[in-house]
Amino acid sequence: MKIGIVTYHRSHNYGAYLQSYSLSHALNSLEGVECEIINYNLVSEDTVYKKRLRKRPLYIPIYMKQDKMFEKLQEEQLLSGKLVLSNTYDDVLDEADSKYDIVIAGSDEIWRIASRGFPNIYWLPGEHNFRKLSYAASGRMKLSTVTDEKKELLGKLYADFEYIGVRDEATREMVEATCPGKKVYRNCDPAFLFNQFKPKETLKKYICEKWKLNPENKLIAVMYDRPDVISQLRKRLGREYKFICITRPMWNADKNLCAVTPFEWVDIIGGCDYLVSSYFHGMLFAVNQNTPFVTIDRRANRSNLNTSKLYDFLSYTGMEERYHIASEVDDAEWKLIADTIAKEIEEGSTDFTEIVRSQRAGFEDFKNIIRGLVE
Question: Of 134, 224, 281, 353, which residue is the least packed, with the fewest Cβ within 10 Å?
Answer without folding.
Answer: 353
